[in-house]
Design a protein that fits this description.
This protein has about 100 residues and is mainly α. The protein contains four helices and two strands. Helix 2 runs antiparallel to helix 3 and helix 3 crosses helix 4.
């Protein structure tokens, strides 16, 4: 199953950060795609999406399955570096 970049309607710093999907491993791409899908279906509020991504990336880190890009994403999410939260999810930055 390949995760690919979808058409973007708005570019944010986080979407730019994730635009190099080749740097993310398949587990990271699947995690992000699942969160995006749930956000787009309006079944996952923004703060829960952030918490879910952080928890998922931490789990991958414990399993030593986190890429360099994944570590950078985890650090940025934990610090709250994206003031716009996860608005980038609304336009399906990554989709299945």
């Amino acid at each position: 199953m390949v995760v690919k970049m979808a058409k973007k309607t708005k570019k944010t710093s986080l979407s730019s950060f994730l635009s190099e999907e080749k740097d993310l491993n398949s587990q990271e791409r699947n995690l992000i795609a699942n969160v995006i899908e749930n956000m787009n279906n309006h079944t996952l509020p923004e703060q829960k999406a952030i918490n879910l991504l952080i928890a998922g990336l931490r789990k991958l880190s414990l399993e030593q399955s986190l890429s360099k890009q994944g570590y950078a994403l985890l650090e940025k999410l934990q610090r709250g570096d994206w003031s716009n939260g996860l608005q980038w999810l609304a336009f399906s930055g990554l989709s299945m």
